[in-house]
Design goal:
This protein is an alpha/beta fold. Strands 4, 14, 15, 16, 17, 18, 19, 20 and 21 form a 9-stranded mixed β-sheet that branches. Strands 5-6-7-8-9-11-12-13 form an 8-stranded parallel β-barrel, surrounded by 5 helices.
Amino acid sequence: MDHFQYKNGILHAEDVPLPEIAAAVGTPFYCYSTATLTRHFHLFQDALSGMDHLVCFAIKSLSNQAILRTLGDLGAGMDVVSGGEYRRALAAGIPGDRIVFSGVGKTREEMAFALTHGIRQFNVESAEELRVLSEVAAGLGAVAPITLRVNPDVDAKTHEKIATGRKEDKFGVPISQAREIYRLAASLPGIEVVGVDVHIGSQLTDLAPFEAAFTKIADLTRILRADGHTIKRLDLGGGLGIPYARSNEIPPLPMDYGAMIQRVLGDLDVEIEIEPGRLISGNAGILVSSVLYLKQGEGRDFLILDGAMNDLIRPAMYGAYHDIVPVVEATAAVEQNPVDIVGPVCESGDTFAKGRDMPPLAPGDLVAFRSAGAYGAVMASEYNTRPLIPEVLVKNDQYAVIRARPSFDEIINRDTLPEWLQ
């Protein structure tokens, strides 16, 4: 469920008509719903009620500070994968003891900064990283709380580019090596073992891979405890999918996900951490774009928008589906015809949909890409010297620009000519 609905034939974000925002900020732009973010966060809170837990929002899915502050005020922790994301979380008012630092390539500088400013834990991805973290922490006279990210060799049955839990993936340590690396962790100065971490991929639409991975982690937890390690926390990652396409494939509900966690891990007396991103932010955001032209080709027509692959790269990168709807609702009697929906970037890959049935649209009409809140704005670029587009947050009948569109002068003036060209 989201809070982008037609009212009197006009698509609204909560109680704000989208044409009103478009007139004020121009197109294209991202628009987010506070009510949807709040609802989806509480779905996870409710799903894990009765268990000691922390829901950490995966910042990589949507990193605007206004979004982080909104979720942080609800009690969310944050999962970060870079020093920049860590700084964003701090800037949004998230305390260090609610920030989890993940990622396969943490630098010494990032480790030191997080240790200095506060961290809940590092999710360590290799023995090599563990040794470096020990050196950094000991040098600061600090102790780094860690979990070890374990690769359970479970196929998440998701897109090749977002699967992370198979033995051929770059993430984590093989589960067969976990005991050895935990022994290493226990021997290193500046390291405190607090738990185990696992994350098998993104956009999962079946609970079976989760259950297979969590069962392996439960068995490992018992073994590690028998070895003398303190395992008080299990970080289960994120990955629960959302329904992008009009199909019969319905992802599991957070409540069913929580019930499975309780059944598989409930007897271990551990704190559960989860790191959802897409399910909290995906349906909480849309991309609004204007029609530039309807171009008639040979055997196909093209609907050319002012939004492009640099604004929303998921279709070009993953072949991802987004429902694309007119902001002014089409009546049931209107005939729809197939069009290729494309942007103005000089790449054939700048195509959002092929042969998509759409009602008649004219230049200046608005369309909305649904389920664009996750991995939309955060993956945008200025390719073709196209400015990053505004982000807008709505709450009830109010809206605010939470990231403005930069001017061309701001973009171009970032370049510096060397002395010999001046």
